[in-house]
Amino acid sequence: MSVPVTHDDVSVRTRAILARLGVDADLDVPRSHASIVARSPITGGNLASLRTADASDVDAVVADAKAAFAEWSTVPAPVRGGLVRELGELLREHKDDLGALVSIEAGKIVSEGLGEVQEMIDICDFGVGLSRQLYGNTIATERPGHRMMEQWHPLGVVGVITAFNFPVAVWSWNAVLALVAGDTVVWKPSEKTPLTALGVQALFERAAARAGVNPAVAQLIIGDRASGQALVDDPRVALLSATGSTRMGRAVAPRVAERFGRVLLELGGNNAAIVTPSADLDLTTRGIVFSAAGTAGQRCTTLRRVIAHSSIADELVDRIARAYDTLSIGSPLNSDTLVGPLIDAPAFAGFQKAVDAAVADGGTVRAGGARVDEFGEYAYYVQPTVITMPAQTDIVKHETFAPILYVLTYDTLDEAIALHNDVPQGLSSSIFTTDLREAERFLSVAGSDCGIANVNIGPSGAEIGGAFGGEKDTGGGRESGSDAWKSYMRRSTNTVNYSNELPLAQGVKFT
Ligand code: NAD
């Protein structure tokens, strides 16, 4: 167990970081229904009280973003990349501070807080390159003397709603691609992590000043669900990118569809790993422990289910349980901590409810299962938990945002893949095997039904170079690398006739 830190320490450190990042917002507005209280899950104490944006604030911000789009969309893409380069440089300069703020507000351990900022830097590097690679196709036409091509144009205002657990990186995945694409951005971060958002916005505004760009191209709304809904319903928002729970996605998607807006949804996961008899159990155990217990189980890609062959399941569970015994739980600001707190009391209630439900369904707790209560009444630290299950019951199919790993067994690979896919979500997945046929089968159309499928790597910890996202209740969106930029642009198909004739397609005659 690492040493608890005091709330005063956390509070003083937070204010100093915010000042260094250049945040000048009023952090002490009087508490009322119109304020959001920023707190740290490390101690459960309050850090600041901020004004909540109401519908008229959202309206004004979107109007500014729409106005800024008129000019920004005409700036050549490689010049737009210059703004992203400045942002990447500032993130490098302030990596330690912003990473620590992520630890303070989201509860991530030091290396994961820094890793999240590194992910922002990586996507900035990617964005600078992308700004010179927004390619369209030239297509063979059936008509002589004609040329057909595709161009990609900026889309408009992009609304970005983000979750608490990736409080800075998810904004950057969206904002960098959108800005390079020529769009303008309005961000509504989680009400649980407003301070990291203020820190990012302050850095962005400095980047805009360095690049000589109107800062209205990327703006921030500090607000709650109602502020998010105002963004969702605004017809000037051409694309709404929403990251969070499946419940949120179900509320948001039909409202955007009703006004024929575009949505990009990054919702909940229920990620599994199949462990076959040929798996290297040392490597497998390490992969499982990071993916299941890391970030205290609060990643969308957290490993929540292991589907182990019955011949190795007992040994695997013993190894995981032994590894869990060695994990240090405590303040994420202590560099030896591996498991930090849950975000808040409702998250802890969800943990407890899930453990109880799994036991009621015949599950056996093989590791953890309880709260670690030496960190005070309002801080919610729990032991990473392993529960062996007789079957994939409803609780196993449900995403509980906490470090609970359910273990199921199988006898044939067909059975394992059927169990794997028999959940509503479809984000990330893995197989641990040294058998080429098993690995390829898992990656084939007859294997994992997820957006991400890995071999001998756990499901969490993606790189920015690949497209990120998942299927089914995960929402179908793709962000970050590969050709995810296309979601932020509109395609125009152009046909040019450079002949003196006017042949019609499909041989149609009209004279
Ligand atoms: P949440 O759904 O409670 O909130 C996410 C965001 O949506 C917040 O900003 C919130 O204010 C906003 N919101 C909620 N309801 C809304 C509504 N009706 N209209 C407009 N905005 C609304 O999620 P959370 O607890 O912050 O995050 C955890 C969840 O996010 C988990 O389910 C996790 O799997 C998911 N997540 C998914 C990804 C991914 O890329 N697939 C990444 C991170 C987190």
From TrEMBL:
Active site: E266
Highest taxon of source: Bacteria
EC category: oxidoreductase
Keyword NAD: yes
Residues covered by the Aldehyde dehydrogenase domain: 34-491
Assigned EC number: 1.2.1.3
Keyword ATP-binding included in the entry's annotation: no
Subunit structure: Homotetramer.
Protein family according to the UniProt entry: Belongs to the aldehyde dehydrogenase family.
Official protein name in the record: aldehyde dehydrogenase (NAD(+))
